[in-house]
Design goal:
Strand content: 5-15%
Strand order of the largest sheet: 1-2-3-4-5-6-7-8
Helix content: 25-40%
CATH architecture: Alpha-Beta Barrel
CATH topology: TIM Barrel
Number of helices: 10
Oligomer: single chain
Structural class: alpha/beta
Number of domains: 1
Number of strands: 8
CATH class: Alpha Beta
Order of helices and strands: EHEHEHEHEHEHEHHEHH
């Protein structure tokens, strides 16, 4: 069994995908569901996925859980609640009861306030993630690394994973300070990292070799037991394809590490049997 630890389904007609505007995202701004991903999963021998939110609404989380109920390949769902509304504690408590609900992902990369995650009025949500034994997906850019380090240090027992390697700016050849700050998080915390998003952050015509310094750094810092592979499909289609990224990852991850990176790490973190 292999696990795709990060993929999306959506239907823009629902009206809550506020980021899905403009020519840049036009190729994926359409209804995309399990029938579209199924051929990729079959071709590459992937039997389970983690379905991740893409809209800042509880309604979308309900929509994704409905898909999960009807789709055997979806093992877990990472949803969303409003961290700025303490009333959503009830939503978390309710969602916790769904067998395929794993945790939450606030869309921090879209917020202007770098210190948002440290605001007093949102701390109840991090406390709830801990109390309910949920997972937390950390979505941001390299400029969020310092605030996230403080957050992870404040909640050392929170089950957290960094999405998309925190999006290093590969297209500009930027390695520092991303690399040093990721190393500190790996050394000082128990947080995990998703080997996802590198193709999206690279320039057109990327190759496994051009992504190698970034993948190597993540694997060396976190170790295979704290790294999980995911596709970030269909966002991936904007600068690559499912097959090209899967094949590149097979090259980038040493064969001895592949059982953990492509299966065991995600299964343990998300509780996938």
């Amino acid at each position: 069994m292999m696990i795709d630890a990060h993929q999306h389904y959506w239907n823009p007609a629902r009206g809550d995908y506020v980021w899905m505007v403009g020519d840049a995202v036009a190729p994926i701004a359409r209804a995309i569901g399990p029938q579209d991903l199924a051929p990729h999963l079959a071709r590459h021998g992937i039997s389970k996925t983690v379905l991740v939110q893409a809209a800042p609404s509880v309604n979308e989380t309900e929509y994704l859980l409905g898909i999960a109920d009807a789709t055997e390949s979806v093992a877990k769902v990472v949803g969303w609640v409003d961290f700025e509304s303490r009333k959503d504690l009830r939503q978390l408590q309710r969602l916790k009861n769904h067998p395929k609900f794993s945790g939450v992902r606030p869309m921090i990369q879209d917020l202007h306030d770098l210190q948002w995650m440290h605001r007093p009025d949102v701390q109840w949500a991090f406390d709830a993630v801990l109390d309910l034994d949920l997972t937390f997906d950390a979505l941001g850019f390299p400029l969020h690394l310092d605030p996230f380090l403080r957050l992870f240090e404040r909640y050392p027992k929170m089950r957290a994973v960094i999405d998309h390697c925190m999006k290093p700016i590969i297209r500009d050849g930027a390695f520092e300070p991303w690399a040093s700050k990721m190393a500190v998080i790996a050394r000082e915390t128990h947080v995990l990292c998703k080997l996802t998003g590198l193709a999206s952050e690279a320039g057109a015509g990327w190759t496994a070799q051009s992504l190698k310094p970034y993948a190597d750094h993540v694997l060396n810092c976190f170790g295979p037991e704290r790294v999980m592979w995911g596709s970030d499909w269909p966002v991936l289609d904007l600068n690559g394809s499912y097959g090209s990224w899967f094949d590149a990852a097979q090259v980038l991850v040493p064969e001895t590490h592949q059982p953990k990176v492509f299966r065991e790490t995600a299964a343990k973190f998300y509780g996938i049997e």
